[in-house]
Amino acid sequence: MARAINQALREEMRRSEDVVVLGEDVGKKGGVFLVTEGLLDEFGPERVMDTPLSESGIIGFAMGLAMAGLRPVAEIQFVDFIYQGFEELINHVAKLRYRSGNEFASPLVVRAPYGPGVRVGLYHSQSPETYFIHTPGLIVVTPSSPYNAKGLLKAAVRGEDPVVFLEPKRVYWSPKEEVPDEDYVVELGKGRIAREGRDVTVITYGASVWDALKAADEVAGDISVEVIDLMTLWPLDINLVLSSVKKTGRLVVVHEAPRTLGLGAEISALVAEKAVEYLAAPVIRVTGPDVPTAPISLEDLYVPNTARIKSGVMRAMKY
Amino acid sequence: MIVGMQAAEETDIPPNFVAQYKEPDVMRVLNPDGSVNEELHKWGPSISDKEVVSLLNHMILGRAVDRWAWMLHRQGRVKGTYGSYEGQEAVDIGAIYALRGEDWIAPSYRILGGLIMRGITLEEVFSKFFANSGDLEKGRNLPVEWGSRARGILSIGAPIGPHLIYAVGFAHALRYKKKDGVVMAFTGDGGTSTNGFHSALNFAGVFKTPNVFVIINNQYAISVPVSRQTAVTRLSIKAAAYGLVGVSVDGNDLLAMYKASKYAVERVRSGGAPFLLEAVTYRIGPHTTSDDPQTKYRPKEEVDRWRQLDPIARVKAYLLRSGAAAEGDFKAMEDEAEERIRAAIKAAEANPPPPAEELVRDVYSFTPWNLEEEFREIIGER
After folding, report:
1. Residue B168 and residue A88: Cβ atoms within 8 Å?
2. B305 and B361 share a domain?
3. What is the pLDDT of residues B235-279, one digit of tens each?
4. Are B63 and B85 in contact (CB under 8 A)?
5. B73 to chain A, minimum CA–CA distance in Å?
6. Among this protein's residues, is B297 annotated catalytic?
7. What is the ipTM of this complex?
8. Quick check: is B58 catalytic?
């Protein structure tokens, strides 16, 4: 996935001079996950900007670039550091179009690796997507695979609205997937059916998609599981969610973020409001626990793994 | 030891190993009695008496709008809270007059006179006060927060400081696009304590962006005096640590504000380091319509002392001395301001509130399904 994102950036930067990249270590080093590797050589320091170590500076500076017509892609080294730029992101980037009566907008992309699974502790493992979903004005995207990462990022760069692009670092380097060299976009606001099924719907996103697919595979003899990969967390693809739930009548939501007020809570509420008559079982949530984040020592317990997802599916089936 | 340089306090460390700074003098061209400092008057960009007359007109208009804002607020006709402007007119009018058409302003609260000079109409001003559809920002923001693309004014929100950093990004983008514009960003003395101020000056220094920062040091951030914002005396010395040029200017002196600003703007435009101007002034009125300074945190004598340094009186005295204007001219300016304001209030009051659907527009470039749904529920069309 890291390579696919690199390819997306490269293609968008070739397409338009307005696209610039900025962040800590994005230049010579190519980013700590090598997502921006080689961009400096091809596009030069005016378009690939190493910045001071300041998240408020990176996001605020990128906002100014966007207001003036550029299409900045700002990297926050780990999403866990983004709080220092929260004022800029939540109070200004997200609210600019609304507060200015559409006089100004800040169509920028903030990319950040997120999520547990590589044993790097409290400040390199967080899943804070709820903060962004809860902030009107932001589009929140989480790719799950190299193919959709490339297409989603290209769509984000070309869009008119600010996008928080959360990259599940657990799947940066595997699974691998063939990514076409040609130009394509994956439309924002649309999820996909990652695996078709009849008996129960598992809605998830990011790295958990792979765990859900594995779980679906393992129970395939007995239960037909439909796996929905949201890709865009907000605005939610409500039609896809409802059509799947109406088909299967059972729903399990899986995410790595803490359970309370996670996206699973909102999906449960929406399904209860709009499709309760189709439900044959309560909505089950399989999520990270409500702890600060995955501890290095017990990370395996934190991450919703295949066994827990299967168990969630069984609970939905046996109700 | 370098003469006049100092550190925060003396130590036993040999002085050449200690970072040292110099608190600058405050640049004043125009004395309170209307006489000028001849040497400084000759220095730098010049300004004709005719231009000064026109700027005085804007100062008078700005002060009159401020007075009307208070009156209307007391009558319950202004929505939200309004921040006072009286006594600071020379700062923004002098500084903004130094800008060209292609330049941009990242505003702070108390620069209304300068923004009107920049093209915001009086009808727009009062429409914003009334939060109706005559406001470019659709009445969504407080009556002290302005943004207008056509006038080169970047939108701001209420939190102090963060606008400074996007003003730096914006300036960088102008240069990236090979445009000549400079971005002048205002903040107050309280703003110098914020994360945004630090980030902005640091990025501006590192990327050498075409920015001029103007700190309106009006001595108070609501009730907290500037001595609680910083342990130094002159805010301009903060420039040194970021690789910027710092200058302190008498903010009640229109000529000094213009000359320093013009010099800074043109120098920055031609590729020089960003500038940090400290305008030393005083907020004569309360912080906002919900503040009560006189009984709580500052003595009346202090306000009276600053009234003696009134920027408008000073310009009038200057013009009387030079013979470029007479008392009758000032009176005519004041009368004209009143007349224009009354007409603008009448026009602004006729503007309807924004249509209900504006509640859910402009959150994104499109209106997503959830907002459509929420709106239908709000207006009872579920």
Report:
1. no
2. no
3. 999 999 999 999 999 999 999 999 999 999 999 999 999 999 999
4. yes
5. 22
6. yes
7. 0.96
8. no
